[in-house]
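Hi F.,

I've been meaning to write this up properly since the lab meeting, where we talked about keeping a consistent format for the predictions we share between groups. The idea is simple: the sequence comes first, exactly as it goes in, then the structure tokens exactly as they come out, then a line or two of notes. No screenshots and no reformatting. I'm using this chain as the first example so we have something concrete to point to.
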Amino acid sequence: MSFYCYVYLRPLRITIHRAACPYCRQGQGMQRKVTQNKTGFWDGPYPDYERVLDRALTHGKVIQTTPLDCRHCQPAKAGYEAPLPEKENIQPVTDQQEPVAEELKSEFRIKQLDRKHLIEQQSLLTFQNSIHRLMKTRHQTERLALEALANKEEALLALADQQKHQAEELLQARAASYNELLNEQAREKSLLLDLV
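Output, unedited:
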């Protein structure tokens, strides 16, 4: 039988589990194939309850909290029966444990910095995507405006061409009627001359 402890970063808390616990699932937790996330991380496996309790107490000294047993799987009943010490009974970190505690503090700081960096990257990516969408919308609007302007120019040119043809036809019709009128006057004049 093996044991794990889960170190919660928000809120600061440590819980000891049996590996077979449905909340532990061999250190995978409730999420599939995730051993670390933004709420904390799994530590283990440990072969017996004493070792996992010792490791949980080390974590507890770093984040200043007392480890608790899982209420569901009750790992203390699986082997080691001693009750967990109260917060006041936790001994200060010894010189031998100091590097481990510093290492854990560094891990927490690195995870917090990584999380902050990831949030900043996501914010920057969201901002860049917004700018890209705005530029794309602007280009589309400009293209549509140019197409509308080109279509309007084509329509105006077609209208001007149609009016020109109509004016030419009207001019030709008037010229033809004027020529007819002149021819008729010339015939009348010649008839009058013949009569005189």
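Notes:
Strands lie at 3-8, 13-18, 36-37, 40-46, 68-69.
The first helix runs from residue 49 to 63.

If this format works for you, I'll send the rest the same way.

G.
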